[in-house]
């Protein structure tokens, strides 16, 4: 895992999957977090296979993946990782799963467990960045935009893992669901802040390295969105 962090010196970030053999992203990765924090790296958190058996008739990506991302975000905040390593810029895929919708409920739970202020816990959740992959619907997008900090929403498509019609449907929801300035920020401007190299002309493709927990994908393929 630390070697993945070392790779962040020349890469744009690290892709870390939510589940690996039943272990959540936040657990047992202090060496990795330390290296990433020292480099001010970007960590893209994306779900993979769930350790629990699939529910018959319900594909894991329909809801289980969203729960896995939510659980990872909860533990990153609950276990103090987001505050201990403040220089890591975490991106949560799929609008953070259920994080925007359930943020106040989770903040109350963490506050009761740790004695922290619920408002402080909420600010830790709002400090994450969120991509819009498969999430720019008329129901989900307003919730995400109301919750996330300005500049913390990034375009995502989930292509090529999601079928093209689904990607197009949600991308269309983004195109028609926000004003022109916000659309430009989500499509590119916010990413240029995280990845300053993108602001160069001409821009170059992003380079990600995978931690031991990274999502499986072709060696030369793009990171999942």
Describe the structure.
The chain has 225 residues and is an alpha/beta fold. Helices cover 45% and strands 12% of the residues. The strands form 2 sheets. The protein has a 6-stranded parallel sheet. Helix 3 (60-78) runs parallel beside helix 5 (99-114).
Question: Which short descriptors sum up this protein?
Answer:
225 residues, alpha/beta, six-stranded parallel sheet, two-stranded antiparallel ribbon, 45% helix, globular
Rough shape? globular
Question: Count of helices?
Answer: 9
* Spatial extent as radius of gyration: 17 Å
Distance from N terminus to C terminus (CA atoms, Å) equals 21 Å
Beta-strand percentage range: 5-15%
The helicity comes to 40-55%
Please state the average pLDDT score.
Answer: 82
Order of helices and strands: HEEEHEHHEHHEHEHHE
């Amino acid at each position: 895992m630390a070697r993945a962090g070392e790779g962040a010196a020349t890469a744009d970030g690290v892709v870390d999957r939510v589940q690996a053999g039943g272990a959540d992203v936040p657990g047992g990765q202090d060496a990795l977090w330390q290296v990433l924090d020292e480099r001010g790296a970007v960590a893209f958190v994306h779900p993979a296979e769930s350790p629990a058996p699939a529910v018959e008739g319900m594909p894991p990506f329909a809801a289980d993946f969203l729960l896995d991302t939510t659980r990872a975000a909860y533990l990153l905040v609950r276990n103090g990782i987001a505050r201990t390593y403040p220089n890591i810029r975490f991106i949560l895929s799929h609008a953070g799963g259920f994080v925007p919708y359930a943020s106040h409920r989770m903040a109350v739970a963490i506050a009761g467990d740790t004695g922290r202020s619920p408002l402080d816990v909420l600010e830790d959740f709002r400090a994450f960045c969120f991509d819009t992959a498969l999430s720019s619907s008329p129901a989900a997008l307003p919730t995400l935009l109301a919750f996330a900090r300005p500049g913390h929403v990034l375009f995502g498509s989930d292509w090529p893992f999601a079928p093209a019609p689904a990607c197009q449907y949600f991308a269309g929801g983004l195109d028609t669901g926000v004003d022109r300035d916000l659309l430009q920020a989500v499509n590119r401007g916010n990413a240029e802040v995280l990845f300053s190299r993108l602001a160069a002309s001409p821009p170059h493709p992003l380079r990600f390295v995978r931690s031991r927990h990274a999502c499986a994908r072709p060696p030369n393929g793009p990171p999942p969105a």
